[in-house]
Amino acid sequence: MHINNQLGISDSLIFYCDTVSFLAFTKTLSHDASIYYGSFITDSIQIAKSPSLKTNESCKGRIGSELVNLVKMQRNELELDTSVNLKMYHFHNIKNENINLTIENNKRYTILLIYFYSFGRYYDDLYKEIITAYKRNPKAYDLKIITLDNQVAYLK
């Protein structure tokens, strides 16, 4: 099954990491298996994860609370993290390699998710919950999914 069909989203939201960037990017992932990479304002400004989420980054309830709190708070109230610079990595759209992942500085927060085919169906509910939040709040959220499977042939 194709990732876009499985998750019910457009191909335009799905990106893969090129081979040059793959190892460096995967080293930035949390040690906990999690699909939620973070929420961003720009390519180099991430919204700091709450202490609660940091203790269990794969908890569906904590991720949900994190996203709800984003839209409740004013930007000047958010704690920012500038230690992540996504511009260092090269992400290409799964259908059009000429389209690269960019995060615009606009009024929406970009939710960045990680997808591994090897996760199986374990995180399906969590993906659906986050995607539903994105679809219900298009003025608040943008969504990008990075697949880290080293073969993207099954995606096309």
Give a written overview of the molecule.
There is one protein chain. The chain is an alpha/beta fold and 156 residues long. It contains 5 helices and 7 strands, in the order H-E-H-E-E-H-H-E-E-E-H-E. It has a 7-stranded mixed beta sheet. A hairpin with a 2-residue loop joins strand 2 and strand 3. Helix 4 runs parallel beside helix 5. The longest helix is centred in the middle third of the chain and has 13 residues. The C terminus is likely disordered.
Structure, briefly:
With 156 residues, the protein is of the alpha/beta class.
Topology readout:
Blueprint: H1 3-7, E1 14-17, H2 19-26, E2 36-42, E3 45-47, H3 51-55, H4 60-72, E4 80-81, E5 91-93, E6 109-115, H5 124-136, E7 141-147
Parallel strand pairs: 1-7, 6-7
Antiparallel strand pairs: 1-5, 2-3, 2-6, 3-4
Which key phrases capture this entry?
156 residues, alpha/beta, seven-stranded mixed beta sheet, 21% strand, disordered C terminus
